[in-house]
Specification:
Layout lengths: L3 H4 L10 H15 L9 H22 L1 H13 L14 H23 L3 H44 L15 H29 L1
Helix pairs in contact: 2-3, 3-4, 4-7, 5-6, 5-7, 6-7
Length: 206
């Protein structure tokens, strides 16, 4: 299994600073870019191309908190976290709000495609503005939830600083991997709900 943290020269951590990660990725990619090996033998060209692809894949995986946590758990536990099934208890109300608002927006967008009279279009415009405001508010709520999870991930980095070295039998027992998996599951839902709402917000703006 490729260790994306090691490939990018990053220590294993639940939280990584996005700007620092990107800067390191760009520096490593510049040195491995195939254009630098234009006149090199075929084997060197192929190796450079493969390394560039590996760096891209590692960066893509580590820059998204949810994907980073899945990879971290896979490295520390030797397995990927199980597929998310149930909505976390503290997110049940959000789950219903997102579902209801998405269904309401979809019905509205369907009505828009059938509207022909100018009066009805004016009424739909007002309704669309109200829906957009509600979608925007719920997106802010989800962002606040994401910010809180990010802050907790930053605080969990301390456990990795003092943890036994990689390969130690005591390492997994001294890391808060259970909580990391809970945050991974919470982020899975938050990321999905934000994408669903953002898609509808764009449609409302058209």
């Amino acid at each position: 299994m490729t260790d994306c943290f090691a490939l990018l020269g990053e220590p294993r951590r639940p939280w990584l600073e996005a700007d620092a990660l990107k800067e390191k990725f760009l520096a490593l990619s510049a040195g491995a870019h195939p254009d630098r090996f234009h006149n090199a033998p075929p084997a060197e060209k192929e190796a450079a191309s493969r390394r560039c692809a590996d760096l891209n894949a590692a960066f893509t995986r580590l820059r998204e908190p949810k994907d980073r946590l899945a990879h971290l758990l896979e490295l520390e536990l030797g397995r990927r976290p199980a597929d998310v099934q149930a909505v976390p208890g503290d997110a049940t109300e959000l789950f219903f709000q997102v579902g209801q608002l998405c269904r309401e927006t979809d019905r509205f967008l369907g009505d828009c495609t059938q509207a022909t009279s100018p009066l009805l279009k004016v009424q739909l415009f007002k309704r669309g503005a109200e829906l957009a405001a509600r979608v925007s508010q719920l997106l802010r709520t989800l962002q606040q939830r994401q910010d809180a999870l990010d802050a907790e991930l930053k605080s969990l980095n301390a456990a990795w600083v003092v943890a036994p070295p990689v390969g130690s039998h005591e390492r997994a027992a001294q890391l808060p991997l259970g909580r990391v998996e809970e945050i991974y599951r919470a982020l899975s839902f938050t990321t999905r709900w934000r994408a669903q709402l953002q898609e509808r917000f764009v449609q409302l703006a058209l």
